[in-house]
Amino acid sequence: MYYCLCCVYQTLYEKPPGTYFVCPICFWTDVAQGSCTISELRKAQLNYVHQGASNKEWLAQVRPPTKQDYRHPQWKLLDTKIREDGTKVKNLIITAFNDVQREDGISLHEADLIYKIYDRFFGYNSSRDRQLLAEAKVKDVETHWQEISAPTLEKFCSSTICFHLDQKGWKYYLPAYLLWSVNQYIYNHWPEMYFIDVVDSFLLTDTYYPLNYEIEDFEFFSRDEYLAILSSEQLSAICQFLHFGLTYEWIDEIYKKNIKNFIQDYCPMR
Ligand SMILES: [Zn+2]
User: Fold this and answer.
1) What distance in angstroms lies between residue 165's CA and the mean position of ligand 1's atoms?
2) Do 155 and 140 meet the contact criterion of CB atoms below 8 Å apart?
3) Could you tell me the distance, in angstroms and rounded to a whole number, from the CA of residue 54 to the centre of ligand 1?
């Protein structure tokens, strides 16, 4: 017998996920991987614990567990595991990036404007754009990445903007976004899109920004060049963050492969 993924009693005759068996104790349907998110399963588990069924519409169908029903003595709610593991990952990020200061790198408002300039395709008006970029930069007032508000991070969480951070800006905003993404797992019921957005824009995709305002052109940088400036402790924290995402999300196979390759390429041997 196998454990039901929701109530964690041994009610399945075949190995989950994907048996499509409906558990008699919690009435969770064991759907195939990818047919529901970890968040949905986590919610169903909380429903079972607090209300008695994976969804309250099934309350009349469920049966209570009996002495014959076996549950692993060390089982933990997915919700508890996500909070515990998420807190560990957050602490690793905070420790590894604590000394990262805001220097004179490209800021979020500035990157947003660079994206809009880049979008015009025909280069840019040097003096006017420099003035606008300077005005955009002063809109970012925080001096430490932990002070950046969640609404600000959410507003600028678009891969297009992250494409335009230079190394200093990237290193400054990276831990803020990693932490914010873990918080989405802890507090938000639909965290997966935030995880993928952050991973894709900060870790997997190359970048463009105006290298020199005088040459009026955009320079291309590969992510390798960015990742090379991180310490092994910082890379290790990133890898723990990625493991956390891989554990708690049923991610698209292509992304999963890219993330695993990243871990293989960049994670310090322990
Ligand atoms: Zn069950």
Assistant:
1) 47
2) no
3) 8
